[in-house]
Amino acid sequence: MNLTLGVLASVLALLPGLALIAAFNLTTRRGGARRPEMQLTAISALVLAVFFSTLAHLFTYLVTDTVLAFLQALSIRFHTSAGPVIRNPLGAGFEALGGRALPVREGLWLLGVLTAEIILVANLTMSRGFRLLIDNIDYNGQGWVFEHITRPAENGYTPVGHVYTSTMSGRFGIAYKGAVTDIRQDEKGQVLSIALSRPERFLYEIGPEAGTTAPTRRRWFKRDRTEARPAERDADVGIRHHGKESAGGVVSLDARVINNIVVHCIANSLLQEIDTNLSDPPTGDGE
Amino acid sequence: MASILTIDQQRTAGSAARKVGGYSELIRLERERRAAKGHGHVERESGTGRVVFTGKSLDTRPE
Prior knowledge:
- The structure holds 2 protein chains of 2 kinds.
- Chain A is of the alpha+beta class.
- Chain A has helices at residues 3-13, 15-27, 43-77, 89-97, 104-125, 128-134, 144-154, 230-234, 268-277; strands at 157-169, 172-185, 191-208, 237-246, 250-254, 258-267.
- In chain A, helix 4 crosses helix 5 (104-125).
- Chain A is elongated.
- In chain B, helix 1 crosses helix 2 (23-35).
């Protein structure tokens, strides 16, 4: 057998396993972050393809053999004939790989059996049960992104992110709040960029509230005994949000400008209920 | 690479945030929904115009 035919024959033999990997890649397409698509050139993909192809062929061979034997028994029992008896199409197919001629009738049945195998494997891979099986596996090492963004998004939640940027002027900085549409990581899991859809833009302030001043240092002998205790001074120190406005569209933020990311998850059912049942606010607040 | 949320999910989230007055309000409503174990519905208070999650459960634990 020459090389081209050899490759074709190998692909045919590994077809169920390759179908499984293709279906798996389709299913996990929405994994977000760094695409967890399984590369066909990876050695693990080859091992998986061989393993699942063997399983699928074994199962199909047994089923086909049983069906053929049953049909032959029926034909003998009722003295009828539906044409010449054929060999098991899978067996005939593998014999053909060894150089034995494959009759057209068995070749057609082989195509049918392979198609049935692919449909079975693809259905299993894209089924809810299989998704549940791999649901808690962070096979791409996304870390917190997997636990707080990817997995909730796959299971009926919308991740909403607050991104505090390093674009600051004095104590004030710009921050965005919106649904996390895209987040990308490098090989080590470091965040490269994040995109928020329909974001709100607001200012955040760090330190004592505007209008108040930090207590000035005094010499110990001049210190006023009624000066605020440290705990009271701490009360007006922290992060405050100001001036929220709806930015609309999508904002994409590069890792260089991101200071912090805070993520909350909101159930899609709640968002759907609000969107369907509530009307727009009577006043223009919040815009 | 692909988006985490579909266009429709993005639109729904943006629209819901606009209707309740911002993403902070959505996060508060989600907290209320979890406290009520998901049983209940959202409604707008007639006086204040604020949207609240009214729970149906008999759970009386303090939040």
